Amino acid sequence: MEKIKLISVRNEEYPEGRWDRFTIKPVLELIDPITNLFKDLGFSVDVLNDLDMYYPKFGGFKSFYSKKIKAYLIGYEEDCLEIVLDSNLPRIKIVEVVERYFQFPEE
What is the pTM of this model? Predict the structure, then answer.
């Protein structure tokens, strides 16, 4: 299966952690990569079940929490979806997990 292409990747550090932001164009095949990403990041089955029922509408926002990480799905009116991972996990760990399911933009 072809990976979904990321439009942009950004991160912003703050004193206790970092926000890693991944922007994509919404496509129908998106829920499986996001579910697998969240599973690999250690989210519970309850969160995965909730995620499976949620696909953000434009202008929508949904948050998910685990012991080590917070995740936000934000649907923008500009026809894009942003996955925001809020954690103090090493950036390389986040990138490695995201790379399993999404294709990073060419630099």
Answer: 0.85
